[in-house]
Amino acid sequence: MRILRWIERVLDTLLQTAILGLVTGLIVTVSWQVFSRYILNKPSTSTDELARFMLVWLVLLGAAYCVGKKSHLAIDLLSMGSSIKIRQWFNLYVDLMILGFTLFVMVYGGFRLLASIASSNGISPAMQMPLEYLFMILPVSGLLMAAYSTLSIMTFLITRFEKPGLASQEPGTLRD
Domain map of the chain by residue range? Predict the structure, then answer.
């Protein structure tokens, strides 16, 4: 369990740092865009596109962080009012569905999209940057979500079958 907690803390720290950097970059970029347009009367040509790219990265990394913190959207109606055992198994099912979706759609589909963009030499219009840099976030965030889901599944299995005294804790919560 200690190694699982350590991995989760490392992922949390990496994502928090990246999200903080992206939010800071987004604020600076949008502020510069407003300043250059209204104060200098000479709008910057690439800040709008850069802000869009950063927003896409921010949203997908934020989604990965939400999966790790179990604050993602889930349909709780089925598990509300149920016993803790049923909620645990329902949460395991949700983790398995997230794992399947992220591996197939985001990772596999993301890599296929990257290959397609690379073969067509897609370039962003304003910054003249390869579009692979924008779409690279799909498999990256998919792998992060899959890692969090795997950690949650492993925690559930360990607490459920190896340590009966901890079986009452919610799956995915890495506590002693």
Answer: 2-166
